[in-house]
Amino acid sequence: MSSIPLLALTGHYCAPHRTRIRDLLTTDWTVKLWTPDQSVDHLHSLLSKAEAVVTGADALLSGRLIGPITQAKHLKLLQIPFSGHDWLKFEMLSSECTACNVYEHHTTIAEYVMANILEWQIELRKIDPNFRTDSWDYGGSAVSGKKHGEVRGKTIGILGYGRIGEQIAKRAKAFDMRIIAVGRSSKPTPKPLDWLGTHAQWPQLIEQSDFLVLTCPLTDSTRGIVDAETLKTMKPSSVIINVARGPVIDEAALYNALKTGTIAGAVLDVWYAYPQPGEATCSPANHPFHELENTILTPHCAGWTDAQDERRWTTIADNLDRLRRGDPLRNIITLN
Amino acid sequence: MSSIPLLALTGHYCAPHRTRIRDLLTTDWTVKLWTPDQSVDHLHSLLSKAEAVVTGADALLSGRLIGPITQAKHLKLLQIPFSGHDWLKFEMLSSECTACNVYEHHTTIAEYVMANILEWQIELRKIDPNFRTDSWDYGGSAVSGKKHGEVRGKTIGILGYGRIGEQIAKRAKAFDMRIIAVGRSSKPTPKPLDWLGTHAQWPQLIEQSDFLVLTCPLTDSTRGIVDAETLKTMKPSSVIINVARGPVIDEAALYNALKTGTIAGAVLDVWYAYPQPGEATCSPANHPFHELENTILTPHCAGWTDAQDERRWTTIADNLDRLRRGDPLRNIITLN
Predict the structure, then answer these.
(1) For the domain that residue A94 is a member of, what is the CATH number?
(2) Between the CA atoms of A271, A273, A279 and A280, what dihedral angle is there, to the nearest 10 degrees?
(3) CA B52 to chain CA centroid, nearest Å
(4) Closest residue of B to A267, CA-based?
């Protein structure tokens, strides 16, 4: 091996950042890129020499990254350029290799969640197009038109009170919302919350929430945690917001609850199916959520901003510098 | 006069609240209603006996309320059921009569302003309809689609730092925005603000703002304060949000600035023309703002919610009770 270590960027996602990371790094690295249109042999050869790899989502989705990672003998850092790692297993990595992820999306996702809560109450998407036709149907006191709703005083319930939950709570508090949450472990209730419980308080959380926000990781215990029973115990006026992972909610149960008015609505950013590498599109679910008016639907973009990307690549470069200098790495993933 | 005083509610706006105010009042009042479809003679007769009048906006707009008010000899309380009172002049009222208004809309309008700032950055109104066609154009990291923007770190500039401004600042702070403002008088900068200036700092406010929010009253000094010159010194990426009064912005100058890209956009809730009593609709401006894509347009409804209405009528009933009991009135308007 040469004295300058090799960094393998993988996936089209990493391609535009090749120059940027070179600029951000303060230690020496040879930076090479593999994209899913190239051969697996090439990937094997690259990873067999690499000391660090950045695992772009499209490279992972291609299904060809895991094998070569498992066999990458010199790998010291597996750097995930996002936060989710439900695909990562302990046995994939040698004892020399540390896996790290990045966050920097929590404030961005909190903005998305608050935008949707506000939109749900105010409905700019209905008022603006209506007013453009010179209709004053939604006019205020001078016209006495249809009124909209308020966020103030409503209860927001957060499932999975971690980094994203904290940022949502901080913002919701400024709107004088009541905030309740359920996390993995029992902790004293932190400042902005009315109460913080564990999964034992899940029934109270779903009963009391006007907006139920899912921000938990997808694990064996959260898969399908929102099922038909859960939906039935929610307020009929309540709205579910999923920025976690699609399968945290049972798809058929959610579709039926929305269709029949068991709950008032859903804001869905995460899905049951995604376009595979090379595919431009795919249907995000088996059920036609896009036909339902009581939904706001977005393609897993809640955290997808340039500013988030910039913060993430700054963190990634910092971790590579830390590895080179022998300093402690940031955001180490603990695998069981 | 009978020992039970007369309360005159005026305008269709007050009609649905006739029963409610009777329920809310803890002191005795005879409550009568006049609506603009009734005669002016009837209004004159009612107001000549009334001790208090609630001035509904449609009654005011009908132009027939001012005369009878001026001649109402027993009037002790002129209660405006909203906040604006640019139409009210000192010489209209006898020395026995106090004018009061109500607020309770400041948190509601702050929600509207934040909803629009978030919508401007995230653009749910574009992402949701696009995704409903199974397009992943705006998809996140797995798809590497178009990115949206963030509120975090942006500068919000508030013209007219009063009740509404304070509530906007409180919320904007939770989003880690930079907040600057200009008010009527020189004061120490309060906590959430980066700086608070007077009209002398107006140039700095407009130059630094990513979102310029107008919350000032319409006065001789604010009419047309945003003119072609102002718009030229704003950032090309900036957005103006008007929840004050339409004529605070020069209409032609704003239309041209939006049309030619001098500024990036506008959120307009207040207008240059309103439907007159009996009219269902009217064009809100001389210029076709509704043809511009870089606008969000709403019919003066930023504060128009049931919860705001409930808070306002509770305050109005409280003021009537205070008048009866001889306690100090709330929200007294100081007229020059």
Answers:
(1) 3.40.50.720
(2) -30
(3) 24
(4) B128
pLDDT at B316 over 90: yes
- Is A142 in Cβ contact with B309 (below 8 Å)? no
Report d(CA A227, CA A204) in Å as an integer. 16
Q: Is residue A332 assigned to a domain?
A: no
Burial class (CB in 10 A: 0-12, 13-18, 19+), B96: exposed
| Same-domain check for residues B177 and B263 | yes
* Residues of B whose CB is below 8 A from A297: 128, 131-132
Q: What is the DSSP letter of A333?
A: P
Residues, chain A: 336
Does residue A14 sit within a domain? Answer: yes
Q: How confident is the model at residue B314 (pLDDT cuts 50, 70, 90)?
A: very high
**Cβ <8 Å between A128 and B296:** yes
Q: Tell whether A130 and A276 lie within a shared domain.
A: yes
- Within B175-278, residue ranges assigned H as helices are 202-208, 228-233, 251-260
Residue B89 belongs to some domain of the structure: yes
pLDDT for the residue numbered B86: 79
**Same-domain check for residues B192 and B217:** yes
Return the beta strands (E) in chain B as ranges. Answer: 6-10, 30-34, 52-55, 77-79, 98-100, 155-159, 178-182, 195-197, 211-214, 239-242, 265-268, 295-297
* Chain B residue whose CA is closest to A13: B144
User: Could you report the per-residue pLDDT of A206-262, keeping only the tens digit for each?
Assistant: 999 999 999 998 999 999 999 999 999 999 999 999 999 999 999 999 999 999 999
**Set of chain B residues whose Cβ sits within 8 Å of the Cβ of A280:** 136
Determine, yes or no, domain membership for B332.
no
A6-42 pLDDT, tens per residue?
999 999 889 989 999 999 999 999 999 999 899 999 9
Q: For residue A302, give both structure tokens.
A: 């809640």
Could you tell me if B156 and B194 lie in one domain? Answer: yes
Length of chain B in terms of residues written: 336
pLDDT above 90 covers what percent of chain B?
82
What domain range is B76 assigned to?
6-104+306-325
User: Are A314 and A174 members of one domain?
Assistant: no
The predicted complex's ipTM stands at 0.91
Q: What pLDDT shows up at residue B336?
A: 62
Distance from B77 to chain A by nearest Cα, in Å? 21
Sequence-ordered strand ranges (E) for B68-184: 77-79, 98-100, 155-159, 178-182
* Chain A residue at shortest CA distance from B122: A112
Average pLDDT, chain B: 94
Based on the fold, state whether residues A110 and A99 are members of the same structural domain: no
Known catalytic residues of A? Answer: 300
Averaged pLDDT, A279-305: 96
- pLDDT value for A336: 62
Query: What are the pLDDT digits (tens) for B227-249?
Result: 999 999 999 999 999 999 999 99
pLDDT of B27 higher than 50: yes
Q: In whole angstroms, what is the distance from residue A169 CA to residue B175 CA?
A: 11
Q: Name which of A16, A58, A54 is nearest A35 in CA terms.
A: A58
User: Which of A143, A274, A275 is closest, CB to CB, to B299?
Assistant: A143
Do B116 and B251 belong to one domain? Answer: yes
Backbone angles phi, psi at A331, to 5 degrees: 60, 45
Q: Average pLDDT of B211-217?
A: 96
Q: Does B288 share its domain with B315?
A: no
In chain B, the number of structural domains is 2
Q: Please state the pTM of the whole predicted model.
A: 0.91
Question: Is B199 noted as a catalytic residue in this protein?
Answer: no
